[in-house]
Amino acid sequence: MSxxxxxxxxxxxxxxxxxxxxxxxxxxxxxxxxLLRALLALGLLLLGLAxxxxxxxxxxxxxxxxxxxxxxxxxxxxxxGGGRRLESLTNSLLLSALSASLCVGLAYGYAWxxxxxxxxxxxxxxxxxxxxxxxxxxxxxIGLVYxxxxxxxxxxxxxxxxxxxxYGTTGIVLGSVLWxxxxxxxxxxxxxxxxxxxxxxxxxxxxxxxxxxxxxVTLPGSRYGLLMAWxxxxxxxxxxxxxxxxxxxxxxxxxxxxxxxxxxxxxLHMGAVVALLLLLPAALAFRVEQWLRARQAASxxxxxxxxxxxxxxxxxxxxxxxxxxVAVALAGVFAVAVYxxxxxxxxxxxxxxxxxxxxxxxxxGGWAAYGNSLxxxxxxxxxxxxxxxxxxxxxxxxxxxxxxxxxLHAMATLPMAVPGLALGLGYILFFNAxxxxxxxxxGSLALLVICTVAHFYSVAHITQLSGLRQxxxxxxxxxxxxxxxxxxxxxxxxxxxxxPTLVQVAGYFFVSALTTVSALxxxxxxxxxxxxxxxxxxxxxxxxxxxAAMATLLFATAALGRGLIAxxxxxxxxxxxxxxxx
Length: 582
What we know:
24 helices
């Protein structure tokens, strides 16, 4: 006879009593499956309305003529049949590829210097390179105007380099490289920092020199990071609207073509055609990035030793010169734009003044536009963080309902492949349709919040999933064995563990909402005009200095808001998660 341990169910039952199978299910436990189904259905409905329905409206409108009659692919044939319009597609592809190649090449050298050399003040160089993340792409373009434009400080430098004027392909490539550089650096820095020191030691023991080690160890180990960075930058450039609008000159691009067709000529059907053409390369690049991510192997095994570079005077000195040169060029363009916002009359009277910050005296929404942007950023941060956490929890934690959870995950990652201009135009076609009961949202700040959350939702969703997957699945099993409902697990376990991730996501939504232009350029009204769109309006009207001032204000607000959110998150973590401290 097997021994019975004290405290087991058999022991507690006593002699002559039947074994218990656990406590009777509570009413809350019986409601759990239905509540989970309701939450899942609600999540699918919200993402369907925010993402799928606008895209479906966009596709259907591209098959109709100006009078709403079905014409099939005639609109596509008409667009691609025009020489200049076909040139827009060619320019978008070629200039995006060129910008991505230059940006990734520069960022790879920068990331290699930060991770494989012993640089003084490495954190400072990294921070300078990441500054453009806090600014709209319009600020980079305006900085180029003040640096290399007709009245620029270094306008002769382009001539010495044999380049044409700033406005056109030169400006598009330079501006695109400037504002996408930190995105490439983040990806490449991660790829280059996770290297196994044993590989370098083995190469040195075999007599390989520095260049051979780089060619046989460093470069092959980071090839997937290189390819993913190239794809990400390509998508960012081809879907960007701000840089081509400010410094593109007469160079036709798909992003500016959409704006001209919709705003300039009120041809929504042709705008839908261009938006779908813009969607195709972005979606293809997104699929390539997913394929690369799936094929990427782990670079650090269980026995790996983290690579710590040795001090080498010549290598470190050359790397420092390179990093300093790139950082000065990168931050210098933004610094010129910031200083120009205070200059009395550029470039003849550089005495500082606050006159350009009197936004109510310039074209655009004035200070009310800045207030709208602040409201938009705060509401987007709150709503986006809450929604992405709950839906990521639904995807990862509950058991069962696998088909619905898989569909929810697919819908949550779809916005990553949708350009902002295409999404914004889809919102016009869906939410302004006469038959739509949600038409009352059109023109409101609430719709701008919904569109912004949808536009940046995929990155937040993936980040929240990463945070939730820190917890092993046994936590849910233990909670179920104790009869705890899922909402108590969510509040007492999952939310505290994911709190640092929630803070990061809130900061991401806040900054993105402040600086975005493309997704909202079709949706604002005079009462809901935004600061980033006011920058565009001021620049169009020739008020470049006030445009630089508004862009600078957005940059300062993004930096301050991100810092305050980080401090708030640090306080919450210290208050609720003392177990994280050593």
